[in-house]
Amino acid sequence: MAVEYFTPGVYVEEVSSGIKPMTAAPTHIVGFLGESRKGPLNQPVMVTSWNQYFDKFIGYTIADKMTPRGTVEKDIDGNVVKEEVPFDKVSDLDWGVYTFFANGGAKCYIVSVNNFEDNTEKVNSLKDELAKAKDAASRAKDKEKEAADKKVDDLSKQIADLSAPKKNITKELIGNDGGPNKRTGMKCFKDVGEVAILVAPGVTSPAVQQEMLAFAEAANIFTILDAPLTLEGLKDFGLSADLNGLSGLSAKSASKQAAIYFPWVNTYDPSIDANKLVAPSGFVAGVYARVDNERGVFKAPANETVRLATSLAYTISDTEQESLNMNGINVIRDFSDIGITVWGARTTVSMIDPEWRYINVRRLFNMIEKTIEMGSKWAVFEPNDAILWSALKRNTVAFLSRLYKAGAFAGATIDQAFFVKCDSSTNPQENIDAGIVTVEIGVAPVKPAEFIVFKIAQKAPQE
Predict the structure, then answer these.
(1) Which CATH number is 43's domain given?
(2) Closest CA to 54 of 116, 111, 9, 98
């Protein structure tokens, strides 16, 4: 309602321009899932550097947090001096986060579902004690013999318990949804709205990966999956242990919100002066973040160098990659001229849904949808009339125009790149009566040049 004026004078009023700029939703923030040495369990913890992760989830104090294994220092003569650390066991989560930051990652959330410990020292100590107990039992007689044998049995049981294989944490990774602040496993990421990529480094359990696919589809985020460490691991998916089986892995994980990468990557660990095979998802998540920040989410995260990679678990040739690429298995290749490079940009529905064949197209739409959702909340409960329609259209066009100028859309002009429609034709009276506003949007995403073809022919000399 307009203010009534009674006294002559100058009055200054602030009037809304009606412009509500949309800020692009983050695309590079990763949610990491796994187990760690220490740290809070089933709580999303924001981490913005490797040092921060090291302090929260690895935890011992060293001078230089070089790798998950520890540090390398040299004395005055150049001899390596290894700092004392509690134990050498390292999780796939540790290496995944480490390679993420090394490849350009800047921000992530960590959900640890289990704190493990290394029992090597305890087992070795008990084995020494057991040897002595057995010797004592062999020399004991009568009542002493019974007590000595019992001690041998007790020590043997302790060693067996401590040496038992790592428990299956499939249930912990999948988790339960008990509502806000009562969620576990990957369900914890429901409490973090800005996570755009879900990763569980080194987790190749079919059950967990299926849950990751379902979660990503429901949350409208993307997930990066690891192929098994060896081709033998394909048997867990009911596939043959060869490249034909690997080609079929995408069908087992078909989703427009997912990509699979193969093979695992060797990275040099200076603390032990040896290579370590690491799951590719951490490297690739860092590449996604790097490309998003340097170019934009519309650029395919491929033909990008994998930092820290020294070699690969498998070497794939052009011929071998043909079937893998067609079926949506993204291969990491080692080229003599450009090094170890991500050489694939397809989702797992590459063969069955060409509309969502490319990773960058799917992730661009994720970003646009999230941005429009967040940037239009102001309109809820506003009067449903032409003024509101015009404002929604204006704000959406302004946002998409920025993306077009950045190179996200195909088309020589804005009209060719996208359209936004919000008027009486999209909002008939029956929709208004139902409280619904409809904005129709169409965009022409730019797709990667996956095959570069030069046609060369001999040319007759001109006289």
Answers:
(1) 3.40.50.11780
(2) 98
Q: In angstroms, how far is CA 374 from the centroid of its own chain? A: 22
Do the domain assignments include residue 4?
A: no
Q: List, as one string, the DSSP characters of 21-76.
A: PPPPPP---EEEEEEESSS-BS--EEE-SHHHHIIIII----S---BTTB--EE-T
- Residues 62, 149 share a domain: no
> Are the C-beta atoms of residues 51 and 101 closer than 8 Å to each other?
no
Whether residues 91 and 125 fall in one domain:
no
Domain that holds residue 394: 378-463
Tell me the C-alpha to C-alpha distance, in Å, between residue 138 and each of 124, 126, 134, 158: 21, 18, 6, 20
In total, how many domains does the chain have?
3
Residue 18 lies in a domain: no
The answer to whether 40 touches 53, Cβ cutoff 8 Å, is no
Q: Are 298 and 418 in a shared domain? A: no
The token duo for 166 is 């790592």
N-to-C CA span, the chain: 84
Judge whether 126 lies within some domain. Answer: yes
Residue 73 has pLDDT above 60, yes or no: no
Residues 324 and 221 in one domain: yes
Indicate the burial class of 223 (C-beta count within 10 angstroms; 0-12, 13-18, 19 or more).
buried
Q: What is the pLDDT of residues 193-225, one digit of tens each?
A: 999 999 999 999 999 999 999 999 999 999 999
The predicted pLDDT at position 162 comes to 64
Q: What tens digit of pLDDT does each residue of 222-275 get? A: 999 999 999 999 999 999 999 999 999 999 999 999 999 999 999 987 666 788
DSSP per-residue codes, 354-377: GGG-BHHHHHHHHHHHHHHHHHTG
